[in-house]
Amino acid sequence: MEPICPIDSSCSNQISLLLNPPSPPQVQKYFEELIKTRQSCGLEVRTNGKHGKGVYAKVDFKEGDLVLKDPVLFGIQHSSNKMDCLVCSHCFQFIGSVELQIGRKLYLRNLADASGSNSGKRKFSSALKDCSGQCNESRDHGDSDVEEYDVDRCGLSDSKSNTNVIPKDVIDSLMEGGLKLPHSDIVSLPAVVSCPGKCKEAYYCSQSCAEADWNLYHSLLCTGKGSKSLSTEALSVFIQHANETNDIFLLAAKVISFTILRYRKLKTVYFEEKEKHDAPSILGSCNFSLLLEAWEPVSMGYKRRWWNCISLPDDVDCHDEVAFRLQIKELAFTSLQLLKAAIFDKECEPLFSLEIYGHIIGMFELNNLDLVVESPVENYFLYIDDLPDSEKEKAEKVTESFLDALGDEYSGCCEGTAFFPLQSCMNHSCNPNAKAFKREEDRDGQAVLVALQPIHKGEEVTISYIDEELPYEERQSLLADYGFRCRCPKCLDEELPS
Length: 498
Known about the structure:
- By secondary structure, the protein is an alpha+beta fold.
- The chain is built from 17 helices and 12 strands.
- The protein has helices at 6-10, 12-19, 24-35, 98-113, 134-138, 168-176, 207-216, 232-244, 248-276, 286-299, 306-309, 321-343, 354-367, 376-385, 389-406, 472-480, 489-494; strands at residues 43-48, 52-57, 66-70, 74-77, 193-194, 203-204, 369-373, 414-419, 427-428, 434-436, 447-451, 460-463.
- A hairpin with an 8-residue loop joins strand 5 and strand 6.
- Helix 4 (98-113) packs antiparallel against helix 6 (168-176), helix 9 (248-276) packs across helix 10 (286-299) and helix 9 packs across helix 13 (354-367).
- Residues 41-466 form the SET domain.
- Keywords: Metal-binding, Zinc, Zinc-finger.
- GO terms for molecular function: methyltransferase activity; zinc ion binding.
- InterPro entries: ATXR2-like (IPR044237), SET_dom (IPR001214), SET_dom_sf (IPR046341), Znf_MYND (IPR002893).
């Protein structure tokens, strides 16, 4: 049965205005201002009737040149990845220390293995053990080398006969700063900063990131005592549902929170200006104009309804497509109702329509990039492996047991998904001239794009939305989910004559 959202009909005019694509002058003005804040200023966004928006080079780029570093506008770390990586909830760089990263992963893995026992039922966030600032404490034990550690006392000397078992007190010591691994100072990570709202879900690399995330998104989505949500209990139910179904709902919640918070700031400024000029403070229809202004960054993203643009899974028969898409719509409606119970704002009511919610998620489906940040733990173990034999032997008396316990997952990256405003304007080509590529120095969640070949001034910068090495028909089938048939030079060359 089709889910019915009353707000869709009661706010239909406002919804239509919110989803109306911005005019070319609006687009140009918005991206001109945005590009000024980016590391590369050799780009511009243009609009045209053929592809909508596109990104063009204002300067020449050589092969391998940095084309763009684009910070995240909306991003999340995948829920399943939080066991492996402790990262800043705003910029997504790793935080704490190598010891904390390793100890936390082992601790959480032990909890998962003991899920049938009382210890396994402990709340996930308790694994962080109020780790804020502990990485600094761990550095206060001095610069002792590995020789100072009593390997037998740590219970690590019998690692060959007791593979993959690290004593609990050793794991605790790692997490709490009591045990410093040899040469771990070669990896410098920022200290852990707690959430301003005192939740145990979000941690940061700095006070500035904590404040930025709080003011932009998190104050409405925090489950701590300082939360600005209507109900932290309802918010917890929404988060649990998202974690159990699709964490893209958490990203959609960020968009709605972001827009509400922007609206409230604009409204405050509006009243302050009225008071300065001693004018009547009557919002009337002006409140929707403020909502449109608050929505502007979101309006720039290409959107379709999620249930219409999501790819049909391989295990769903084409005859069941209608039922599948209805099921997706029902899932989104359930999520929306849970979110509404947690953060609803009457003045921003159109944001809680199923039509808006579906288009927000569809924007992510069509535009998002994988968010990947390399693990410092991998770099640490590679450094140990490259030491001269004598130093390596001493270091591995301590590190080898931890590496064995971590197993093949020792090098796990931070993984998530994110919407990048400038990257999302780039059009597809099966023979792209740029690609997303993290360099060694790129340690946070920003999208990094480099030139695959020389890009000349005035030329459009293109990326591939899919694996461009696939056969022609497979490429066209995948790109159909984006709502177009590719007519790039490579496809025209490979197209069979009609």
